[in-house]
Every structure is written in C-alpha cells, then in structure tokens.
Amino acid sequence: MNASTSTPAPAAIVVDGLRKSYGSNEVLTGIGLEVAAGEVVCLIGPSGSGKSTLLRCVNLLEEPSGGVVTVGGVDVTDPDVDLDGLRRRIGMVFQHFNLFPHLSVLENCTIAQRKVLKRPQAEAVEVARRNLDLVGLADKADALPAQLSGGQQQRVAIARALSMDPQLMLFDEPTSALDPETVGDVLAVMRSLAEAGMTMLVVTHEMGFAREVADRVVFMDAGVVVEQGPAAQVIGSPRNERTKLFLQRVLDPTHVRGDAAEGSEG
Ligand SMILES: Nc1ncnc2c1ncn2[C@@H]1O[C@H](COP(=O)(O)OP(=O)(O)O)[C@@H](O)[C@H]1O
Ligand SMILES: [Mg+2]
Q1: Which keywords describe this protein according to UniProt (predicted)?
Q2: Alpha-carbon distance 75 to 231, whole Å?
C-alpha cells in the first residue's frame, strides 16, 4: 500500500498477456495487470472495454483464450487447478447482488459457509453476524432482502462475500444499479474494507471513490490497458487522450463534445 515500503508485497493477482475472445470478437487483446497484497486498484473505462470480462477471467467465470492469470501464486489456467479452492479465496460483488429472496439476511450470509466451507451452524452465524455488523446491518439479520433498500442489499452481498474469508475481493460496478442516496453507504463500507487492508480490484465509475481510496487506477479501453498509475495522476492529470476524453464524459456528463475535439483523439 505504501509506495515507500522497501520490500514489495507479494502479488495477489498477476495478469500477463491475457486475451479473451468470443468467437471472432477479441475483447481482451493482451492485458497486463498486477495487484499487490493489500492494494486497492480501481479499474475504469468505457462500457464494452472488457472490464467485466477481465474480472471474470480472474476467478475463471470465463476461461482466458491466452496469457497467464495467477491468484496468490496459483496459475488459474492450469487444467489441474482446484477451482473451488480458487473461488473460495476470491470474494466477488456484482452490480446485481442476487440474494436469495426467500432467505433472511442472516441465512444469505451463512448458507455458503455451511455448504461450501462445511462450517457448523453456530460458527457460521457468528461469522455472519460479525460481518453484518461490519457493514452496519446487524439489526437487519432477520429481515428478508425485499425489505431492504438496494444499498442495504448490496451491503448484505458484501457481508456474504466476507463471510467466506476471502483473500481478495473483486467488485464489478457495485453501486451502478443503486438509488443515488444509498450509494454513499456502500462506498463507505468499501472504504473501511480498504483501510483494513483488504486486497481489492474494483470496477467503478465513482471517480471520487477511486481518487480517495485507490492506490492505483487502471484505465482500460477496447480490450487493453491504456494508462495506469497513482489515482491522483490518472484522474487528476491523465496523459493519454482516450483517458482524458473518458474522464471528461464521466466527470461532466453534460459535456458535449465539440467538433474540435473530434480530431484530437490519437
Ligand atoms: N458472454 C459473452 N459472449 C459474447 N460477447 C461477450 C460476452 N461477454 C461480453 N461480451 C462482449 O465483450 C465486450 C466487453 O464486455 P465487458 O467485459 O462486459 O465490458 P465492460 O464490463 O467494460 O462494459 C463487449 O463487446 C461485450 O459485448
Ligand atoms: Mg461491465
């Protein structure tokens, strides 16, 4: 986390030359990316640039077409990889939280602990309550998901992921589907996770969050990493024209691109 630390932390995620095609459509065309243990990296870029596909290749929800992905030193593309073991180490939070509607908040946070980790019920409940407390929802343990706001449901999804004791967390636009007034609480939970030292790779359009919380920001466009660096540099003074244009649009959605800007992109 601290750039001045002399011994580099071990890499939690290493992506090298990653390619992914759907039929003849190559959506990742040679991605290189590293996330160190304890580091928070925000991945930004236009819709369709391959951000979700990249995350999905890290936990093998998609099979890479080429290149190497290692998680905690384990090559995920090795045919003999322990897939369940790998996925257990990686917590994933999606835009749509997919809680079980018929189970209580507490049960949503215990079911995978019991079925996948084979934890005894009492221990699973204890872990779930601790994580619900962490996301500020201790008092909602007995509620059904439909009784909660979208932001509260997303915080339950985070507590559910944390209850599996992941070594790292992947977030794919966790606040994009939320009512604006519930976004802040979700970002606050993510910030506290980051401060507690969790390794996080976060796809987000929340530039304020990225700027404040990320150790590094990676800008992707059209299946490649175009620019990466400290958050303040990439967001505050981007070097690449594509990064500048993207940030202009995200930071000021009312910005109308004039004809003059049209030819300036390299
Ligand atoms: N399962 C799939 N089958 C075919 N094409 C896909 C699939 N998933 C994603 N794509 C395509 O890959 C490209 C990148 O998508 P995605 O990774 O979702 O981008 P982002 O998350 O940056 O918006 C898009 O053109 C999308 O249509
Ligand atoms: Mg996406």
Answers
A1: Amino-acid transport, ATP-binding, Cell membrane, Membrane, Nucleotide-binding, Transport
A2: 28
